[in-house]
Amino acid sequence: MNKTLSASLIKLIFTTILCLTSVLSGYSGERGEKTLGIHGGYISRNSSAEIGLFFQYSFTEYFRLQPAADLSFRHRDRDAFLFDLNAQFPIPVLTKTHFSLYPFAGLNFSSWNRHYDVPPVDGKPTWDEFNPEYSTRTNRFGVNVGAGFDLKVSSTLKLNLEGGYTFIKANSGLRVLLGIGYIF
Predict the structure, then answer these.
(1) CB of 152 within 8 A of CB of 90?
(2) Which terminus of the chain, N or C, has less C-beta within 10 A?
(3) What is the pLDDT, as a whole number, of residue 114?
(4) C-beta separation of 150 from 183 below 8 A
(5) DSSP letter (8 states) at residue 30
(6) Model confidence over 78-104: pLDDT tens digits?
(7) CB atoms within 10 A of CB 17
(8) d(Cα 95, Cα 26) in Å, to the nearest integer?
(9) β-strand partners of 113
(10) 29: which DSSP letter?
C-alpha cells in the first residue's frame, strides 16, 4: 500500500467518525468497565487469518485501553506474534442502541517469522536432511491506527468490529478483526 493511499485511508476513517459524532447520545462504556474477549480476522501482510485475546479497561466513558495478543497463521512463508496496546476513544451513536464508534491509536510489537526452504548444495544433503527448512525471526516495534465499533448485546456481552493499519518497518499491513467479549 503506498503512502498516499494510506494517508487517504486514515483521513477517510477520521472524517467518517467526525461526521457521525453529530448523532451523539446513547451508549458508551462506564468508568471501570472491563471486557475480556477473543477476536479473529484477516491480516494483509501475509494474507492470512489472525486470532487473539483482548482486554479492555474503561478509565472514563470516552477513554479506554486495550492490550491484545494475537497470532497470525503461517501463509506465504510468514507467521507472527503481535502484541498491541491501543488507546480507544468510544463515541456513543444512535439513542437506545448500545452502539459506539471508536478511533484508536497505539503501539505494536511484532515478531515475524520467515521460513525458507534450504536447497541442496552441489547435490549433497543440506545441513539438516531431516528438516530441510530454516527460519529467521524479526522483532520490531510499530504504530497502530484505525477505527472500530462496539455493539453491546446485553449487560455482559459485547460484539466489536475494527479495522486498522499497523506501521512497522518491512512488515506493515491492514488488519480487520471481529470480536466477542464478556463484560464484567
Answers:
(1) no
(2) C
(3) 85
(4) no
(5) P
(6) 899 999 999 999 998 876 668 899 999
(7) 17
(8) 4
(9) 79, 137
(10) P
- 34 within 8 A of 165, measured Cβ to Cβ: no
All residues at 6 or more sequence positions from 140 whose CB lies less than 8 Å from its CB, including other chains: 109, 110, 112, 168, 169, 170, 171
Classify 95 as helix, strand or coil: coil
User: How far, CA to CA in Å, does 139 sit from each of 7, 14, 18, 113, 114?
Assistant: 25, 30, 35, 9, 11
Residue 20: is it exposed, middle or buried by C-beta count within 10 angstroms (0-12/13-18/19+)?
middle
Which residues make Cβ contacts (< 8 Å) with residue 31, sequence separation at least 6?
A: 58, 59, 60, 61
Note the pLDDT tens digit of each residue in 142-163. Answer: 999 999 999 999 989 999 999 9
C-alpha span between 75 and 77 (Å, rounded): 5
The dihedral sign for the CA sequence 124, 128, 131, 133: negative
Q: Alpha carbon of 42 to those of 84, 86, 101, 177: distances in Å?
A: 16, 18, 20, 7
Which H or E run contains 13? helix 3-20
- In DSSP terms, which residues pair with 87 in a beta bridge? 65, 105
Q: Supply the pTM of this predicted model.
A: 0.75
